[in-house]
Amino acid sequence: MQRQAHGHSTGTISASSLFSHTLYSRIVLGRLLSSALPIVPRPIVARVARRYIAGDTLDSAVALVQALNKRGWVATVDLLGEDIIEADQSEMATHRVTEVMEALHANDCQAGVSIKLTQLGIRFDDALCARNVQTILEHAKRCNRFVRIDMEDSSLTSQTINAYKHARKNVPNQRIGTVLQAYLYRTQNDINALLESDVLPDLRICKGIYREPPEHAYTVRSLVTRNFIHCVKTLLAAGAKTAIATHDIVIINALQEYIETHRIDRSLYEFQALLGVPIERTLQRLSDAGHRVRIYVPFGAQWYAYSSRRLRENPEIASHVFKAMFRRID
Ligand code: FAD
After folding, report:
1. What is the sign of the dihedral through the CA atoms of 99, 80, 203 and 63?
2. Angle, helices 317-325/18-36, rounded to nearest 10 degrees
């Protein structure tokens, strides 16, 4: 799946402004390179994508989480891998997620896990996927870990919401949440429906990373921003736990102001960011002001799909890739 551009506005480019001209060139170059990413050699992608991943091993993820915890930030660990096509791969992934939770528990880490249903078999066997989710949740309960079901492309939105509702019912008292994407038209309705059920939902709101057709998703950046803010306000006003997952300073500032003005209880919300996205100063400012900050920490050998998505949304992609191309490849 490829990331959508969200209709990013480049602003009015003044031909007389050298800065704007350079910026324009970088944006055009970045877009060109982002569509050419599949033909960029893997070692180069690996080199520039390293910042987004804790490492290949579970130990690397635990060490990184410990460093984040020392800084006062909590984490969500994600075992990389998606779109698997065989049952035993899904069972292997399930087993590895249980190992992740055990390691987090044993090392007293302040961290939960995220899972992807396509890593657990949803594309080819619903029942198997449900069993895998059940195994993970029962284990999570024993290890006292929060589990969030990440959201994938819109062909899976309904299935993911149903899996979330089903899991909530099947493993009572286990802390579990899912994700909704502000770029989808349906999201506000999904929120309203979830708010009507007996248990309040626990939702991460993000913009959405997959390429979606205009029949399903806003393609204009300002509309995604507006929907994002509106969705979060709806959830917080209803008292639902909400994770604000974005690096967009406009959204962060608007929601920080809303939260502080309405004195929203600190246990109800948190700000989340992806490992490697350079917004440390903003996150530090938020945590200094008493807001909880959580970093999403992916690790594992299956890094390619995730890293490619991250690179496509990095405005500096062109310069990073070119620099890496002219360095020796180990
Ligand atoms: P953007 O407008 O894309 O970015 C805002 C600014 O942040 C940019 O101008 C840029 O300066 C900077 N920036 C953003 N990305 C990068 C990058 N990779 N490298 C360098 N700078 C960057 N999407 C899903 O579809 N499903 C999920 O389950 C999901 N989970 C997520 C969990 C977390 C914790 C986060 C933070 C994001 C998640 N996403 C998920 C991805 C999300 O949908 C967006 O694609 C991603 O966050 C980029 O959008 P943005 O809100 O940061 O806004």
Report:
1. positive
2. 70
Pocket of ligand 1 (CB under 6 A): 150-151, 179, 181, 206-210, 245-248, 272-274, 277, 296, 310, 313-315
Query: What is the Cβ-side half-sphere exposure of residue 109, based on CA atoms within 13 angstroms?
Result: 31
Q: pLDDT digit string (tens) for 112-164? A: 999 999 999 999 999 999 999 999 999 999 999 999 999 999 999 999 999 99
β-pairing verdict for 293-299 and 74-79: parallel
In angstroms, rounded to a whole number, what is the distance separating the alpha carbons of residues 282 and 164?
31
> Which one-letter amino acid corresponds to residue 46?
A
pTM value? 0.89
- How close is the Cα of 44 to the center of ligand 1, in Å? 22
Listing DSSP states for 246-295 in one string gives ---HHHHHHHHHHHHHTT--GGGEEEEEETT-S-HHHHHHHHHTT--EEE
Residue 246 CA to ligand 1 centre (angstroms): 5
